[in-house]
Amino acid sequence: xxxxxxxxxxxxxxxxxxxxxxxxxxxxxxxxxxxxxxxxxxxxxxxxxxxxxxxxxxxxxxxxxxxxxxxxxxxxxx
Length: 78
Hints:
The chain is mostly helical. It has helices at 3-11, 36-50, 56-61, 65-76. The protein has one domain (3-75): Orthogonal Bundle (Non-ribosomal Peptide Synthetase Peptidyl Carrier Protein, Chain A). The chain has 4 helices and no strands.
């Protein structure tokens, strides 16, 4: 799974946040634009792009983009 592509997909869920500002280490909850709607969009993106269903609990416990990336990566390697 490509990290840069994942970050790009993640960034596409935001309207005002520049993708170049995001890294795997980004605490996405600290982004001003973050909301529950964007959380649902991220979950939908993971399902569409990676065929991975994130639970609400997994999303709630994630703080960095790397947290979401690692969950998706683990589920795609099964």
